[in-house]
Amino acid sequence: MTTFSELENKLIDDCYTLINELAVEAGKVVKEGFFKTKNVVYKTSEFDLVTEYDRRCEEILIQGIKNLYPSHKFLAEESSTKLELSDDPTWVIDPIDGTTNYVHGIPLIAISIAFVLKKQLVIGVVYNPILEEYFKCRLGQGSHLNNNRIHCSQTETLSRSIYAHEVSLATVEWVREKNMKRVYKFASATQGLRSLGSAALTLAYVAKGCIDGYQIDDLKPWDVAAGALLIREAGGMIYKTDGTEFDFMNSYLVCAGTQKLCQEIINGIKETDSWSLNVG
After folding, report:
1. Cβ atoms within 10 Å of 73's Cβ, excluding its own
2. 223 part of the active site
3. Where does Mg(2+) bind (predicted)?
């Protein structure tokens, strides 16, 4: 684990205060837009949506940070063109994770914000202003939901777990077969499979302990950075899908509250990925 100087720790303190203020401000905009008709733009396909509220939220967050820290770097869904991480202070932002839910009036969405120093995650915020769920964490200080400490579940087997997998990834043709095989495997091996439509919120629910395990591939850093730190600070485990060390810049992940459940998920994925399944 990276060690920080007194000056760097002061920066983390100040950034933690700042981002909690900005997240609340951005949340008001997101909540306002949830109950209104939205101007929807399709980015790369008819499944890849963005609204004016995504952009307004991102602008509030980035401009609020730049006003105090003009030299800080950003990895943000609606404005970043390069996925590069240096030792510089860097913010990783998804203004609305779960935009499709947001557009259709489903309240499973999240503002996701992480702060990275010397390439290490040190602050994470996942905020659902519709349901008033505010998850936050700092490196070494645990995870909290609405100021109450939270912990991952201690479930150790798939057969006793609620498991999350993003079924909507079937819209992406080149990963469709892989994901449908995994759905087939885990839907029948667990007490229930859940697909929330927001990776950031799902990760926060793993940290809260109401979802026991989760696996997802093919995401971006802003989808998972804050949630990954929440899970670690809540006592959980997170790995790359192949079981190696997790890297939020390469967002293929398996997470759970316990090592045993993580390993069972990883083993199950290795099994299903070897299957032959014709899904069209």
Report:
1. 16
2. yes
3. 77, 94, 96-97, 223
